[in-house]
Design a protein that fits this description.
This protein is an alpha+beta fold. Helices cover 32% and strands 8% of the residues. The protein contains 16 helices and 15 strands.
Length: 561
Amino acid sequence: MKKATATSEENEFGSSSNSYQSRSKNKGKQPLTDTTNGTNMNSQELEKIQMQQHANCNSQSQNTTYCNENITPLTSSTFASSSKVVSGYEDYGDATWLCEHCNALMWYNERINKRRNCIPPKFSMCCMHGKIELPPPPVLPQVLLDLLFRGDSESINFIENIRAYNSMFAFTSMGGEIDASVNNGRGPFVFRLHGQNFHQIGSLLPEEGLPPAFTQLYIFDTENEVRNRISAFSSKRRAPNSQPRTLRDDTVEAIKSMLDECKPYAKILRTARDRFGDALQSLDVKIILISGRGTNEKTYNLPTTSEVAALFVGDFDEEIDARDIIVETKGNKLTRISELHPAYLPLQYPLLFPFGEDGYHIDLHLKRTTTTSKKPRSKVSMREFFAYRIFERYNQFSALMFSGKLFQQFLVDGFTMIEAERIRYLKLNQKALRADKYSNVSAYASSGNQDSTKCGKRIVLPSTYVGGARYMREKYMDAMAVCQTFGYPELFITFTCNPKWPDITRHLQQRRLKSEDRADILSRVFKMNLDSLIFEIHNKNLFGSSRGSKLSTTIGQKSSF
């Protein structure tokens, strides 16, 4: 078995196995072929089509691209229509094409059916061909815009410590164990989480002798609120270089005033504080965070305080939903919040949802369905929700894309939510999966063990669950079947992502971001380059004719096949 290492000295791929030259050439008087999309159109025609897309988007949108004078808006000079080889790397240009349904900014090579060249291209990874339509993000408060983009010392301090500032005003705590040891070196920041992740909320008032935290900071000892918030987090939170964080009083005061004015969850807590004062400790006050949404899904109004929360004194007789959250005055137990609650995300990320916009919930409906099934799916899945949210859209501005380290935390949190939803489905549908027919369970019963308590309640993960034992075994057996038919592989190629690729660096520099701030961009460009490499090997016979299908595995931004 031969092993090939793709380097710039050995083949035409360059140091990252990605700099091969385009083989397309001009013949006669044919127009120049765009190396990004392969269409027989000159650059002026392509730019004209792109600018027409953006003009149509401008006429339909009521929002602005960037809601601040300090941010450069997208103009015609931003949109490049052709790719070129830069420093040995193939440049795919800028993400200038718009999805015809949701106006997401896309690269041409992200289109569906890449074997066909079409203008304008069609995309599905952002909104599933227009099936998904979520409320656009509201215009951010000026305070938050200044902290993100002003560029002075306060803004730099805020961006560097944005996770600490967010946790300082979060209403809930994260149950997973954060591993900070990975950031001890000089590399880029990495958010790593161990164990099962979940969000919890405590009581309105702290136990006697304990300092206030999270929700309690909105009610308890508000005369010294800024000092309490800084002391609650600066003493135990450390920066990656093991130095104490420097959190500014003026920044904390500005964020506090902003949330008091905008966020409905903060308003209901302030209302309880102003209404009951010191008598709150002797009263049985409960705050219910409502999970149901009675508004029309086609209208995108920001939630009001009465829609998201209710304040009760004493007992109440009204029936509540199982996902509703009851916050009591005092208690030593933390309440776990369901991932299906609309407030699951805005309670944990007040800086990303300053107006308390709803996160994912089961009342999100598809805009349309195209299936011919008798029972078509009508609800938006959690994966589709996050896929829609992490795409940048023309004439829409979201703080999520510019939140740096907090964006990493949001992505990890979203991934754990998706995995929890998948496992919950498998747990509740074991009978449909025929889990009792699996050999190991049957073997335990046939061996004479009649005590089912020793066997425990078994939850079987089928081979369709990515990453599970049966999934890995199925892939292994498929690989062995291919080897049995076509013989053993002759090449072992490792393909890695380079954050210095020109299309990545240009995309990030236009937004004043670092490569670690937008892991989604690195993944998307890596996928485009990986697909191009596989196309060169299989379709253009780069190493000779291929006898069988590729066997590949992807880990992070590294793929071996």
